[in-house]
Amino acid sequence: MFAVVTPEKIHLSPGAILRLPGSWEDYQKLVEQLGDRSIPRIKYRPGEILLMSPLPIHGREANIIADVVKVLLDYLERDYEAFTPITMDLPKIRGIEPDYCFYIDNWTAVAGKDRINWGVDPSPDLVIEIDVTTYTDVNDYLPYKVPEVWIYKRKGLVIYNYREEGYEIVNNSRYFPRMNISEILVECFRVAGDRNTSTAIRELRQKLAAQK
User: Fold this and answer.
1) Which residues contact 93 (CB under 8 A, 6 or more apart)?
2) One Pfam annotation, family name (predicted)?
């Protein structure tokens, strides 16, 4: 089915990406039109609006990785806040919707808040993105100075750390420096594929508990 974007209706086939020339005002109108709908996803870059309708695998992989992060934070006894879906927008600069985001160092700044004031409140400490359709670009997070971005693509994890000159790929997460996150994810996805997600997360918890 063809993509449909009108004042009355927005529809994209699963897996489709639509790039449109547009202003910040155009982006805001589309966001308002979408309302509480989480599909399609929408992104704004100066002069460009992107719409993407995720495939089922997109949400499944995002949820598994987010569950792994929660298990690891609980194991380390770290407090956190987590959000999904969420729209991060800086007027006329960027509008983006990460698959999942975590406040770890700065969780107290957003705890209990119904709205986050971007540019005033801190950005998330960790953002998770699933890139199935080449929709994701780590540089979209530069204006927000998100400390760490995980992009999962083609069954592999890339970890980016923020530096003043831009993002750089690193081997280990600053939040889990002694853990091999890629190895943990490979095992969790294997178990989830062979059995189910709940078994994968349960086995991860049991393995970590045995190490204490």
Assistant:
1) 46, 143
2) Uma2
Measured N-to-C along each axis, helices 56-75 and 181-194 cross at an angle, to the nearest 10 degrees, of 120
Integer CA distances (angstroms), 203 to 62, 152, 155, in order:
18, 21, 20
| Positions in the chain whose pLDDT score sits under 70 | 1-3, 6-8, 133-134
Amino acid at 75: Y
At residue 68, the pLDDT reads 98
> Is there a contact between 62 and 128 (Cβ–Cβ < 8 Å)?
yes
Can you give the pLDDT at residue 146?
97
- What tokens were used for 14? 């699963």
Instruction: Tally the residues of the chain.
Output: 212
C-alpha to C-alpha distance for 22 and 86, rounded to whole angstroms: 21
Confidence (pTM) = 0.92
Which residues have C-beta within 8 Å of that of residue 202, sequence separation ≥ 6? none
Residues 6 or more apart in contact with residue 153 via CB below 8 angstroms = 130, 131, 132, 136
- What per-residue string of b and e applies to 38-75 under the rule 16 or more CB within 10 Å gives b? ebbbbbbbeeebbbbbbeeebeebbbbbbbbbebbbeb
Query: Taking the mean position of all CA atoms in its chain, how far away is CA 87?
Result: 10
